[in-house]
Specification:
single chain, 308 residues, alpha/beta, 15 helices, 40% helix, 9% strand, binds adenosine-3'-5'-diphosphate
Length: 308
């Protein structure tokens, strides 16, 4: 009798004992999880279909939120259809590799027919060339540096595949120096910003999405050449609110077992706010961060907001 393929959730449960805090290895100057670095060639050689869509972000900038909005737009706001599988299966994470039997991002993509929605945290210079050669659409979501750092800190506490974050004070320094997984936040947001026009990248800001979700959802709709009714847009606004997504088992990562994501330490859907950084940065940390930020961001004018 042919064996039934493992569900994604079951595959993770079976691999849980092989999970550890994987070290980071440099790929072209960007620190990546060792599991990704070891499979780098196959990631880098990935050839997308021109109809594939890439959602690119620095970790914790609102990736899952953007993925959910896109999936709902592509399915005319059908909430049930968008619960057909967890986020990680509906829009696979291009570069992710984990111990077997967990399927890699590439394994999942191979099983899907284009057009596919693909997630990546790769900085622009590491995105497989095929995306540009095939003129794939790319949505980039960026989040202000302070909230992004706070969110990443809590994520690294509970994501037991990432290096130990250590105390917050030291973590801020690692963030500023680009020593965390996927490298420098500054280079990441600047890289996509500089090429957004030439490469037709839709550049979104988390803070704008929070302030006026309807407007940003409509921007995504136009970018994807879709046309959904006003009612459906309104439904998508509701379905992708933080409150609703937090309770959606297909979007809140509750299917990832405790040896991988220990949500008793910090939940994936943590706060979903703009400005939570004020509860973490002391005034001297904030000042030091701002001084460094001014230097690192002096050559661009990305309209980030630290509060709304
Ligand atoms: P916090 O840790 O600040 O709560 P990513 O999906 O890129 O990993 O980003 C996760 C961050 O986005 C978390 O931030 C999470 O709570 C937040 N988030 C997820 N869904 C959201 C939504 N619908 N609205 C606002 N924030 C959301």
């Amino acid at each position: 009798m042919e064996e039934k393929p493992l569900s994604y959730e079951e595959a993770i449960r079976r691999a849980a004992s092989a999970i550890k805090r994987f070290p980071l290895i440099d790929i072209e100057g960007v620190p990546l999880m060792s599991t990704i670095a070891e499979n780098w060639k196959s990631v880098s050689d990935f050839s997308p279909d021109p109809s594939d869509l890439l959602i690119a972000t620095y970790p914790k900038a609102g990736t899952t939120w953007t993925q959910e909005i896109v999936d709902l737009l592509l399915h005319n706001g059908d909430a049930e259809l968008c619960k057909r599988a967890p986020t990680a299966v509906r829009s696979p994470f291009l570069e992710i590799c984990a111990p077997p039997p967990i399927p890699s991002g590439l394994d999942l993509l191979e099983q899907m027919k284009p057009p596919r929605v693909i997630k990546t945290h790769l900085p622009i210079q590491l995105v497989p060339k095929g995306f540009w050669e095939n003129k794939c659409k790319v949505i980039y979501t960026a989040r202000n540096a302070k909230d992004n750092a706070v969110s990443y800190f809590h994520f690294d506490r509970m994501n037991l595949t990432q290096p130990e974050p250590g105390p917050w004070d030291g973590y801020i320094n690692k963030f500023m120096k680009g020593e965390l997984g996927w490298g420098s936040w500054y280079d990441h947001v600047k890289g996509y910003w500089r090429e957004r026009k030439e490469k037709n990248i839709l550049y979104l800001l988390y803070e704008d999405m929070k302030e006026n979700p309807r407007k940003e959802i409509e921007r995504i709709m136009y970018y994807l050449d879709l046309s959904v009714s006003e009612d459906v847009i309104e439904r998508i606004v509701q379905l992708t609110s933080f409150k609703v997504m937090k309770d959606n088992p297909m979007a809140n990562y509750s299917y990832i077992p405790k040896p991988v994501f220990d949500q008793s330490i910090s939940v994936f859907m943590r706060k979903g706010e703009v400005g939570d950084w004020v509860n973490h940065f002391t005034s001297s940390q904030s000042q030091m961060f701002d001084e460094d930020y001014a230097k690192q961001m002096k050559d661009v004018d990305i309209p980030f907001r630290f509060s709304i």
